[in-house]
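Recap from last week: sequence in, structure out.
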Amino acid sequence: MRQIPFLAVALAFLAFPAFAQEPKTLLEQGKWMGLESQETGGKICYMTSFPTASEGKYTKRGDVVAAITHRPAKSELNVVSLIMGYTIDDAAPVEVIIDKQSFKLTPTETTAWTDTAEEDAALVAAMRKGAEMVVKGRSAKGTPTTDTYSLSGFSAVNKAINKACGVK
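Predicted structure tokens:
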């Protein structure tokens, strides 16, 4: 079944439009895919996954993707982004739950982000140890959603992107 990896690469071009070359697949394991490319300003390494389950009473929703990105030339490491598939209610933080840990991410239009590099690092560390990640958000129209991601393969793919971008 090659549709999901192809879709991940296609979505990567949408999420990271500054690519100077087509991304190279580093590793596919479990529900995660790691990629590497060059963009204006240097190398970019990132990993993506799609939810294994989505809940919510919405009539129309775009693509939903979790990504972790390294841009070493810009000193941007472990940047967590959650593309929610809708315009997020900017008054409602997006909640990420891994095991018993909870994280609040800040919405910016259709994507949720942590506020600091330290929060990114803590969230990635929890993802490496966890089995499942639950993401709860609310659209600008007030529709609550819950997306569940498998963290199977996360650690191996995260190691692959770390190695490719020289991240310790």
